[in-house]
Amino acid sequence: MLTAKMVKDCAIRGGADICGIASVERFQDGPPETHPTSLFPDARSVIVYASRILKGSYKGIQEGTDWSTYWIYGYGSGIYSSLGSATGAIAALLEEHGHEAVPSPGGHTLLDEAPSAREPLGKGRLPPCVMLHMRVAAALAGLGEFGWSKVFLTPEFGPRQRFDILLTDAELEPDPLLREPICDRCMACVRECPGRALGGERESIRVEDREFAWGRVDCGKCKVTHWGLNPEASPFIRKDLPGMHMEVEKTTYTWYEAYRLGFALSERIDYLKLIANGSAEHGQGGRPGSVCGAVGCIQACNEHLEGRGRLRGGVKGKGNG
User: Fold this and answer.
1) Three-class secondary structure of residue 74 per DSSP
2) What residues does each domain of the chain span?
């Protein structure tokens, strides 16, 4: 008989560092475009697993010498290869026990910052853009909580991980929600963000008897900075576009406008063009890379949490289970 422990052990052996499980009932109050059964009507359990972002991948940005290591090992094949291996291993295990396994391309912006939804495929159908919210799913699977920056925090790695999701019709025992808070509202993320994107109006969700809260993110300012178009976050725009004087705190881009701006300007900024071409070669769609280095939302947060001894040290397999 398939058990939750078998699934989580498989995820760890397959390459993930932590794994948790949520029941679909925990998603009942969410919008339909982010509900598991809108993507897979027979879903009964949501399996969420993560691989850590190596601390060393930030070193080149910290020293001002190499911006590529974070893009390669924090975003690219360096981390998603392990997640992909875990996905294959879990899916195979589920299918061997007669269950379906449906991967979900989870997102982080709850669709409200993305382009307008397309028309439904038929009467009574949702538009073809159903996407689970990655951080909500991770919280409901008991893996951690939202930091004030909205970046997800786990007891093992703080803000340093990326997630994948599998939906299944197997009824698996869900993990309990995290009870002990990780974020202590130190606001280091807000102070150190070069995009001035963090610390907005309080937002929250309530599940069972637990509330998860964070500060609203200005996704336009975040994306402009993420792409390296904010001169306070990277040196490349000053070098190749010396006449462009962007004051990020005055920008009013939406997430999608900033997203498109990054694609347009990456052709005119040598380094951004280089890593965009590199991402195309690795099957990542030719996107400009993450140049900001997550200075506030990840680096400053991680330094604070480690300094306060609030993390477990990141022993592989020490997640729920």
Assistant:
1) helix
2) 4-307
